[in-house]
Amino acid sequence: MPEDILLAFGLTLMAGLATGIGSCLALMTSTTNTKFLSLALGFSAGVMIYVSMIEIFVKAKDALITAMGVEMGNWVTVAGFFAGMIFIALIDKFVPTNGNPHELKKVEDMNQAEKAVEKPELLKMGTFTALAITIHNFPEGIATFTSALQDPALGIAIAIAIAIHNIPEGIAVSVPLYFATGDKKKAFIHSFLSGLSEPVGAILAYLILMPFLNDIMFGIIFAAVAGIMVFISLDELLPAAKKYDEAHLSIYGLIGGMAVMALSLLLII
Description:
Oligomer: single chain
Largest sheet: none
Distance between the termini: 28 Å
Structural class: mainly alpha
Helix content: over 70%
Strand content: under 5%
Shape: globular
Order of helices and strands: HHHHHHHHHHH
Number of domains: 1
């Protein structure tokens, strides 16, 4: 297997398994470091928004204009961008409310919930959350894999951003499962496995999309990836960062993420 494919798959695997980091943080600490999470989630959103609009969208447009001409290329790029948003929005819509990975979880809050909620309900909550995150991570895996395949430096940036945003998802899975079962190992395994859907998404992208990958297909995929990542940033990362927020830390993180991404792209160019 070519090295670029192995790198793309490795980055996707790393990003997906970051749910295990969230699980470790939840199971090994008694409180949530809200300052860190607010900064980190804001940073992740900044990276994803900047790279989507400045780099990925532009690459998609260039590829489609080359293949289809200026007018049609521009139209298809915009259509692909919003199609990506609609795709991830539909996934969110059909996720059960009590299992939605966008629902904020804190270790200390769940500690209190243990007393207020029946253990079967906590087990159901954790299971639904794991299932929701598994479904939710498929398009993220495709986004990371295809980006890394086309541009490894870009793929690294996206993988880091998605890995950061997967940390709270690991908390969301592991904490209710731990309080429902009393088994840290089981809670960690479920959280860890929920992230495996990202490399599975990468494998599907490789098997299904690679045989058809030309300028048009690449442009459409990249436009959709840009839409997916902007939607995730606006619908998931920034709201979560604001809920964890202390004194505008999420916005500082957002600006920092954009600045780091901008600087890295300038240095690469």
